[in-house]
Design a protein that fits this description.
This protein is of the alpha+beta class and 388 residues long. The chain is built from 18 helices and 5 strands. α14 crosses α16. Pfam families: HTH_30, RsbRD_N.
């Protein structure tokens, strides 16, 4: 029995040795099957590289079939290949399909050189052949996935760096916007939706982004007391956010900037959104935009240079009694909101003529005829806090 076992081992080594001598034929079979399957057709890999890799893999697998100490070398080669294919951009399943071709090729090669007296030898070692190929596939897959995770981290780090560069460069130094766009995987001339939320809403916004089934990649950037989010939109997109975009802003205090019409415009749009969201009260979980925010913004920045428009409205109205003052303010706010006598009357529950009389009284006290656009705009800014 011992003699038989030694003979079978010798026969097995001989069969494997024949395949080592026939390495070129194994590689040719592999290349034919691989190219016929089309797995690597669009991968951009040179055929010479595929042949060299195939030769190395087959040679090492054959050595491992007769020398168990070579299994560790097989694992290391598989790991290197897995990492390389991940960086080559080869789909994981394509790589595994290519590796799995090795078993039928090896087995066919062994069968073709084995005689009838060696059939039982092949049968006894069939599992070893499969295990070598399976081990190679498992280690290649594990390395591929680890490398893929590393690539994702590297790409995310690069994107964060480029986004920071985009924002930090404003007014400081020139940046290559084409390079930034390339790193983000977007077009430099695309249109972008830009929103800002205060820091206390950042966690909710990130959660909304993570759970949303959104077609566009949403980028974020922390800037001072705000979290900025932006994403590509079609050039035909409306100024107001769509329902799908609005879902990203659920349960947050947010402001939407005017559309950024190029990647270079994003930082300024972010600044606008930040200033707008600051006008909302802490208890207001809603979305504002320029249309809703401009009176408050105008009032704030005019006041900073000593232009208090309240002098035109609030101060003159103090000449009226307290009760009349309240009614006049109520009428002004309603009229500025509705733009019509009937709409105002319906809002404050009074007759149209009452509204008209109050508007005349307002003009008498302030000099503003708020039925005229210019005077209405001034009044809107002066009363921004009341309207808000």
């Amino acid at each position: 029995m011992a003699m038989t076992n030694r003979q079978d081992t010798q026969r097995w080594h001989t069969l494997v040795s024949r395949q080592s001598e026939n390495l070129g034929a194994l590689v040719e079979q592999f290349m034919k099957r691989l190219l016929d399957a089309g797995e690597y057709r669009d991968a951009g890999l040179r055929e010479a590289e595929l042949r060299a890799t195939s030769s190395d893999v087959f040679a090492l697998m054959l050595r491992a079939l007769v020398d168990p100490t070579q299994v560790g070398v097989v694992e290391r080669l598989a790991s290197r290949l897995g990492r390389r294919r991940a960086r080559d951009g080869i789909p994981l399943e394509s790589m595994l399909t290519a590796i799995r071709l090795d078993f039928p090729i090896l087995w066919s090669g062994l069968l073709s050189t084995a005689g009838r007296s060696e059939a039982h030898v092949l049968a006894a070692h069939a599992e070893e052949v499969w295990n070598v190929v399976d081990t190679f596939a498992r280690f290649a897959q594990a390395a591929y996935l680890a490398e893929q995770d590393q690539l994702i981290r590297e790409r995310q780090d690069l994107q964060r760096q480029q986004i920071s560069l985009l924002f930090d460069a404003v007014g400081q130094f020139e940046v290559n916007h084409v390079q930034i766009a390339r790193a983000l995987g977007v077009s430099v001339s695309s249109f972008y939706r830009v929103v800002a939320v205060p820091s206390e809403s950042a966690v909710t916004l990130r959660h909304n982004i993570d759970k949303a089934h959104f077609s566009e990649r949403v980028f974020t950037h922390e800037q001072g007391r705000h979290l900025i989010a932006f994403w590509q939109i079609p050039a035909t997109s409306p100024m107001v956010v769509t329902p799908r975009e609005l879902a990203l802003l659920d349960r947050v205090r947010a402001a939407v900037a005017p559309i950024a019409r190029a990647i270079a415009d994003i930082p300024l749009a972010a600044l606008a959104a930040s200033r707008m969201v600051d006008q909302l009260r802490p208890d207001e979980e809603r979305v504002t935009d320029l249309k809703a925010s401009w009176p408050m913004l105008a009032k704030k920045y005019l006041a900073e240079i000593g232009c208090d428009l309240g002098q035109y409205v609030l101060v003159p109205l103090r000449e009226a009694t307290e009760r009349e003052n309240e009614r006049l303010l109520e009428t002004m706010v309603a009229y500025l909101h509705t733009g019509s006598l009937l709409g105002t009357a319906a809002t404050i529950y009074c007759h149209r003529n009452t509204v008209l009389n109050r508007l005349h009284r307002i003009e008498e006290l302030t000099g503003l005829d708020i039925t005229k656009p210019a005077d209405a705009a001034l009044a809107m800014v002066a009363l921004a806090s009341q309207q808000n």
